[in-house]
Amino acid sequence: QVQLVESGGGLVQAGGSLRLSCAASGRTFSTYAMGWFRQAPGKEREFVSRISWSGGNTYYADSVKGRFTISRDNAKNTVYLQMNSLKPEDTAVYYCAAGTGWPVSATTTYAYWGQGTQVTVSS
Question: For residue 27, is pLDDT > 80?
């Protein structure tokens, strides 16, 4: 069992930066791949990024590639999402998730989810 709690969301102007954190409980954190998803009002939840259990492999949606960076610290049971050059279209609730398997972008790949943190980017 893994419990996830996101933090770091907020209101930022376009072009600004935010760093999201996701703290996990449970001894098995380091065995899971971790993903970030987001959901804007009226839209489906979409994949943002994923990092392997070791941190050696990362994946990004095309819409955030080059602007967002995912990382993890297994000693702290925490995964991060550094978001730079934010755009109004990045506005959404951001969720972290833990899981194994493939495909990386499918919500069904992830068994555990946090409650989400709101990110709002003003133009």
Answer: no
